[in-house]
Amino acid sequence: MVTKWLITGGCGFIGRNLIRNLLEDGNNGIRVLDNLSVGSRDDLNRVCDFKESSPETMSISHLSAQGVELIVGDILDEQLALDVAEHMDVIVHLAANTGVTPSVENPRMDCVTNVLGTLNYLEAARIKNVGRFVFASSGAPAGECEPPIHEELPPHPVSPYGASKLAGEGYCSAYAKTFDVDTVALRFSNVYGPLSTKKDSVVAKFIKLALEGKPLEIFGDGTQTRDFIHIDDLIRAVRQAGSIEGIGGETFQIATANETSIDEIVQMLTRLFQQLPEKRNVTVQYSASRQGDVKRNFSDTSKAGKMLGWRPEISLYDGLEKTINWFVKTQTGGVGVF
Ligand SMILES: NC(=O)c1ccc[n+]([C@@H]2O[C@H](COP(=O)([O-])OP(=O)(O)OC[C@H]3O[C@@H](n4cnc5c(N)ncnc54)[C@H](O)[C@@H]3O)[C@@H](O)[C@H]2O)c1
């Protein structure tokens, strides 16, 4: 039987990697809901052929035939959420304000998009009886605390983004307990990998700057730490969360459990860029730390190991190498090379 996935924010970095992976199986139909504020039709087209539809022309038979359908719209449109959720087996809710900086600049926008947008899709899951709801959360709800972060730590968000993602986790828990909706919240750490060209996260930004011959800008002194996960490992976790029984209402840290400083990332990138056929020298420039950024961050992933049967497999060095190769190939016209 074909599993029908509704992916909000499916034109973005994580969404397209998920689509690419689902299509490799040949047993999945995919509906994408995206307002194209970040991702585009061309971006989606890099990973699949798709049919664009409206709520009036959507077709379940297209999904049952393992097709991909794009509906352009906003997660704040309540009626649209109900329409697109009809007949779906799994909702993966990725569309969001995705960063700390925009949330500091405009906390209301961040709250409306991330809290009400999530509520709309939880409501859609409840009313349309969707079997599973996977929510893209982040390490940000935990906030400033002594790492490793784990699911039972009291959350202390530092940024509005952390607060809005925490609210999303809260609603997921409430919908599981009150309405029996099978929700799973995944707290993604810092994700990197192919298709991240539009991302402003550390690895993507550093690779783009290094390829342009520009200095890598480090906010703060470079000793701040993060937990970097390769997209392929993360996608396996999303798929497990979308299918395993008996995990409704749970939250999981999806990370590598390794703590890496920004300086260490720079050292690895410097080595890898030196090994390229066209060697590149990496230079750095330090600026003031950003508001809302935490000093140390890495996660304990043992709960995901036990309940999802999931473990990260790609080392940071190998993952960075793959990612640099992807960026280089893409830059030289190798569209779609992974
Ligand atoms: N990338 C990471 O490192 C990371 C880490 C932690 C959590 N997350 C979470 O994972 C999810 C996906 O992240 P990503 O890196 O793929 O982001 P992305 O920006 O690449 O993709 C998000 C997509 O959502 C769409 N979108 C944004 N607002 C929308 C709205 N109001 N209505 C409909 N569509 C909308 C955008 O057009 C874009 O295509 C987000 O919820 C993000 O907060 C990502």
Q: Care to describe what's here?
A:
- The protein is 41% helix and 18% strand.
- The strands form 4 sheets. It has an 8-stranded parallel β-sheet, sandwiched between helices. A two-stranded parallel sheet has the order 8-11.
- It is of the alpha/beta class.
- It has a domain at 3-191 and 228-257 and 297-313: 3-Layer(aba) Sandwich (Rossmann fold).
- The chain is built from 12 helices and 14 strands.
- The longest helix has 21 residues, at 107-127.
- The chain has helices at residues 13-25, 41-45, 60-64, 78-85, 100-105, 107-127, 160-179, 202-211, 231-243, 262-275, 302-308, 316-331; strands at 3-8, 28-34, 51-53, 68-72, 90-93, 132-138, 183-188, 190-192, 216-219, 225-226, 228-230, 250-254, 260-261, 284-287.
- It starts with a strand and ends in a 7-residue tail after the last helix.
- Bound molecules: nicotinamide-adenine-dinucleotide (NAD).
- Nicotinamide-adenine-dinucleotide is lined by residues 9, 11-15, 34-39, 74-76, 94-96, 98, 113, 117, 136, 138, 188, 190-191, 199, 201.
